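User:
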Amino acid sequence: MPDDIPTPDTPPEPTPTYPEPDPRIAELEARLSAAEAAAGAATTRYREARLAAQPEIPEELVGGATVEEIDASIERARRIVDAIRSRIAPAAAPSPVVVPIASIGRSEGAGSPGAWASLPASERIRAGLAAR
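Assistant: Predicted structure:
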């Protein structure tokens, strides 16, 4: 017969007794849980503040559970954004728009705004109708 099977003539092993748990353990566990929750909320606010200060960085590129991880993630995201900008900037550069300072017909002489301003309204109307 195997030795590990109890027989009626062998007494059962006593059930181990453990000391009562220290009541401070529950309090410390609660405090630890509250501190972890506060730290998580603080890092979330830190991430949001960093993203608000740099709106060109997509929030999907930034992660991390600690301040250091968030900082490293922001730097990686910044490098990605800069690389994308450098690739699309030459292709998307708008051509300069040239706006003339004044039209040729109004630059000097009778067509200039200064010449018309000195005429009474009736003369301006008469000249406008005659030009038709």
